[in-house]
Amino acid sequence: MRFRYLGNSGLKISEITYGNWLTHGSQVENDIATQCVRAALDHGISTFDTADVYANTKAESVLGEALKGERRESLEIFTKVYWPTGPGGKNDTGLSRKHIMESINGSLTRLQTDYVDLYQAHRFDTETPLEETMTAFADIVRQGKALYIGVSEWTAEQIRAGHALAKELNIQLISSQPQYSMLWRVIEGEVVPTSEELGISQIVWSPIAQGVLTGKYVPGQAPPQGSRAADDKGGADMIKRFMNDDVLTRVQALKPVADEAGLTMAQLAVAWVLQNRNVAAALVGASRPEQVGENVKASGVTLEPELMARIDEVLGDVVQRDPALTAANAPKGRVA
């Protein structure tokens, strides 16, 4: 396993980071989820990412139980706040001081830890003053409940404003967590250049495009049973933007490229995002322990420029690059 610095901080994280979105506490039984976490540890992954909203707080509980007994100083544990949790009351969502302060305490209890290494704003809150949000984050850092601050799916303009306030408050905003893959490159135009300027790294989610880049979805055929595209608990909705014959046909044409690199298609996809120097880590999940072992083989892989160019040629115009899609896919108001 290789490790990279997160932003311009001194914190090192594993470039393959284990994330438990859409699995722990919902799609995967707790004993299997624990086996996946143990497999991650066995393969050298030290960084674990979750959020209070995943399975309505259950994912944090599963992760906390799975990591119990590990040396805390050897782990980097990340979580997030924004989306509705609990019964979804009027203050159970957003980035108000009330919700942030209550959420960090709940997360720490469920994760069975005194602090998280990174506390992230899961989305931008258009209805709360940014000053209120960043002051609450600063107080959490000063209380020792979080070491660093990050954001997720913020636009370049929002990142710049948040970073400026963090600097005024003398705390470190060091990360951005956007969707990024061979098929979804919307951060390259604005978010990445802004982040490089400000000393912020990307921790990217969905590097395998929620399974599409494994090649298991074949154009003209129904998705395999048990796959995310066949899941009616939320997985199918998230993956549907890629589930068209044009995209799936192009993805099938990547197999010879992966074979030439000596990688599976999933490993190629994870290695591809790690070629971006602004990416500190690729978030990968698993529904089976053996998937973890396969994904970590992407760590340390260098893809030659000629191979990267071939990937671009194969995928062509199915790649999404419009920077405006970050804002377009964000909540327009606080979700109740």
TrEMBL record:
Q: Which InterPro entries match?
A: AKR (IPR020471), K_chnl_volt-dep_bsu_KCNAB-rel (IPR005399), NAD(P)_OxRdtase_dom_sf (IPR036812), NADP_OxRdtase_dom (IPR023210)
Pfam families hit by this protein: Aldo_ket_red (PF00248)
What are the protein's UniProt keywords?
Answer: NADP, Oxidoreductase
**Looking at the keywords, is Oxidoreductase present?**
yes
What are the residue boundaries of the NADP-dependent oxidoreductase domain, all occurrences included?
15-314
Q: Does the keyword Oxidoreductase apply?
A: yes
The record's section on SUPFAM superfamilies has: NAD(P)-linked oxidoreductase
Q: Which family does it belong to?
A: Belongs to the shaker potassium channel beta subunit family.
Give the protein name, as stated in the record.
Answer: Aldo/keto reductase family protein
Species assigned in the record: Ornithinibacter aureus
